[in-house]
Amino acid sequence: MINKINKIKTAHGDLSLPIFMPDATRGFIKMCTNEELLSLGVSALVVNTFHLYLQPGVRVIKKAGGVHKFMNWPGPLVSDSGGFQIFSLIHQNPKMGKIDEDGAIFKSPIDGSTHKISPEKSIQIQFDLGTDFIVCLDDCPPYGFSEKKISLAVDRTIAWARRCRQEYIRQIKKRKLSGDKIPKLIAVIQGGSSRELRKRCLDGLLEISESKFLNTKIPFAGYGFGARPIDSQGNFLFDILEYTAKIIPDDKIKFALGIGTPADIYRCYKMGWNMFDCVIPTREGRHGKLYQFKNNNIKSANFYREMNVKNSINCNNFKKINIDSDLKILQDNSWSYLHHLFKVNESLGQKIASLNNLEFYVKLMRKLKNNNKK
């Protein structure tokens, strides 16, 4: 299944789809400079509203001139609403807050201070950040919720999406934005593993997207897959991901939120999803896992290998890390040296592994695009 949309214009440059965006959750990619990211071909990043709101705070970022200037990133940025983090915090420990029809009240995990996030405030914060894509606040249920509770989360997600879009239009008018300076708004589809609930959620969002508010009609630019893509037993939800991708209009962004293993990206791209983000490349790299292609062809999900540099066999492995890399640091250094860096807990090793994985993901997206052209 191939999506009709392949390029998006933003105030900070065009994005070519499909795209993988590393998570710069707190405004940075661990172990990597912006210059290194750009040299790899990384074109966009995802920041997290929840984390930036708590630290350094919106006031600081506004004084800097927006999050692009604050983190010195020239390309497009997506701001996740932070709802997943807020609700995970509350669901894991009800003492940390509560969720009601108006939004969420929660305690900061940093200093214990109390905060309230409503759909309107989430949108206001994201406009203050100045990102190119903003995401509606949604009610994200955890594992093990009954279908009845997930149904209530769907109703709340639709209601909040309406309020998010209304505030989105208010902010556009208030800030007198036009053209590419208007950020793209992404709605989130909830519904657990139920086709019926996913369809009901999307139908509600589509109705909102086509409605007018303040005599203005700006549809949602895309739709994201809400909640984690695995069930309580850890099984990947292939069926519901494929179904959800199929029912989203093909002229919209299809954002597979948080989906990030190479195999899962390949499978989801084949379903029609065309935007991806995750912490996996750098997080796994920092723990010693490196991804590399088996060959130039991607015809199944078994197109790559995972290597753990910490394995003792690499102590005497003097082969270069990746002679096919465009990075000299990967061309010149051996697995043995990288193994040594990890053994002595030298951060340079984590940096090298992170760069390897980010380059792998950038090249994966290029290969998917090229396969699409054939």
Task: Provide the descriptors you would attach to this structure in a database record.
374 residues; alpha/beta; TIM Barrel; 2 domains; three-stranded antiparallel β-sheet; 15 strands; globular
**CATH fold label of the largest domain:** TIM Barrel
What count of domains describes the coordinates? 2
Summing up helix and strand content along with how strands pair, one would put the structural category as: alpha/beta
Number of helical stretches of at least 4 residues: 14
Sheet bearing the most strands, described?
8 strands, parallel
CATH class of the largest domain: Alpha Beta
> What is the CATH architecture annotation of the largest domain?
Alpha-Beta Barrel
User: What level of helicity do the residues show?
Assistant: 40-55%
Q: How much β-strand is present in the residues? A: 15-25%
What is the molecular shape?
A: globular
Which spans have pLDDT < 50 for at least 5 consecutive residues?
none
How many strand units?
Answer: 15
Spatial extent as radius of gyration = 21 Å
Straight-line N-to-C gap: 14 Å
CATH superfamily of the largest domain: Queuine tRNA-ribosyltransferase-like
Average pLDDT, all residues: 94
Order the strands across the largest sheet as they lie in space. 3-13-12-11-10-9-5-4
- Series of H and E elements: EEEHEHHHEHEEEHEHEHEHEHEHEEHHH
